[in-house]
From TrEMBL, chain A:
<protein>
    <recommendedName>
        <fullName>RNA polymerase sigma factor</fullName>
    </recommendedName>
</protein>
<dbReference type="InterPro" id="IPR013249">
    <property type="entry name" value="RNA_pol_sigma70_r4_t2"/>
</dbReference>
<dbReference type="InterPro" id="IPR036388">
    <property type="entry name" value="WH-like_DNA-bd_sf"/>
</dbReference>
<keyword id="KW-0238">DNA-binding</keyword>
<feature type="domain" description="RNA polymerase sigma-70 region 2">
    <location>
        <begin position="24"/>
        <end position="89"/>
    </location>
</feature>
<dbReference type="GO" id="GO:0006950">
    <property type="term" value="P:response to stress"/>
</dbReference>
<dbReference type="GO" id="GO:0016987">
    <property type="term" value="F:sigma factor activity"/>
</dbReference>
<dbReference type="Pfam" id="PF08281">
    <property type="entry name" value="Sigma70_r4_2"/>
</dbReference>
<dbReference type="InterPro" id="IPR039425">
    <property type="entry name" value="RNA_pol_sigma-70-like"/>
</dbReference>
UniProtKB/TrEMBL annotation, chain B:
<keyword id="KW-0812">Transmembrane</keyword>
<comment type="similarity">
    <text>Belongs to the zinc-associated anti-sigma factor (ZAS) superfamily. Anti-sigma-W factor family.</text>
</comment>
<dbReference type="InterPro" id="IPR041916">
    <property type="entry name" value="Anti_sigma_zinc_sf"/>
</dbReference>
<protein>
    <recommendedName>
        <fullName>Anti-sigma-W factor RsiW</fullName>
    </recommendedName>
</protein>
<dbReference type="Pfam" id="PF13490">
    <property type="entry name" value="zf-HC2"/>
</dbReference>
<feature type="domain" description="Putative zinc-finger">
    <location>
        <begin position="5"/>
        <end position="38"/>
    </location>
</feature>
<feature type="transmembrane region" description="Helical">
    <location>
        <begin position="89"/>
        <end position="108"/>
    </location>
</feature>
<keyword id="KW-0472">Membrane</keyword>
<keyword id="KW-1133">Transmembrane helix</keyword>
Amino acid sequence: MDAIVKRIIKQVKKGDHNAFGEIVELYKDKVYHISYRMLGNKQEAEDVAQEAFIRAFTNIDRFEINRKFSTWLYRIATNLAIDRLRKKRPDYYLDAEIAGTEGLTMYSQLAANEELPDEKVVSIETQQGIQQEILNLPPKYRSAIILKYIQELSLKEISEILELPVATVKTRIHRGREALRKRLRNG
Amino acid sequence: MKCEKEAVLLMHKVLDQEATATEKLQLNYHLKSCADCRDYFEELREAESFLQSAPEVRAPNGFTSKVMAQLPAEKKTVRFKRWMKMHPLLTAAVLFFILMTGSLYASWTSENELSSLSGNLTFDKERNTVIVPEGEVVRGDLIVKNRNVEIEGEVQGDVVVINGERYMASAGKVNGKIEEVDHIVEWVWYQIKKVSSDTIDLFSSDATSKNKVP
């Protein structure tokens, strides 16, 4: 796998678009998953994931071929997601009136709740539950927790992605686990 | 919880899979005797498995093409190289065509060539014109390239003017054909005719030499 990626990256470094397409195919799910768990919003997750790949392509000259590509790519994605979280402010509220309308609020813009089969409702609820709990973690702990439990990466890899000492990563994971434990106990 | 700090640190160490065998035993031993810590450790493990149960999320459809559409323009050389890899036969054909035209064009423009077999010719530099003077007889074909030619005398053969003009004086005389080649297309055609007639000559001379063998 690593050898294949290395070969493709060499082509990308020469400016080959198609080779980069292979890279996107290989990593799109993982990168999207990281940004989705970080942001909790599909549209934003897609924006950030796309942006991460574009940054990777334009900065490919800075990537050292002997390093692990996924580490570098995940770092770009995590940093973009953290940036996005910092800038994020609630731009609009559901009950605010839409400009140019009379008494029409954003609620009217929401899709109607469709009837779903019971099982589906349950699985979506647990999924949303997990996502909600992840989003309740402060971003500092969130990124470490996502990389550890969702991406199943080693502490060393996480420390490289987050550019933090392993000890700091450990502390963040511990605190994240603690925060989650408390919430799950109360919930 | 009294024993919290030390025990909790140990718990995290175990969860991080960084605890030694002794430390694991130490924790197990402690958990057996301390219900609070047992609950605490159980809750931490639940938190872990809760996170691990998060389902895989896949990138939305059309993700790759959306990324590709936003990439900055590709270096031309790369696109060209890839195209060549994908169409080797076409590449060979194009390469052949380029070399062909190149060499033809080179022979069309490069040397200013003049060939005739015998006879005295004069050359007017200002007018860039080769002159067959009055009363002069050229035996054989006269080929003039990138020059004009003026015939006042006699040529006992063909006259070919390539990329030039031909003036005939009233006294001038040409026994063979007169050909003017002005365009590159005609030049190509002329080359082909020449090559094929040369080949035919080669074959016929071959034939005659064979006939000569007793």
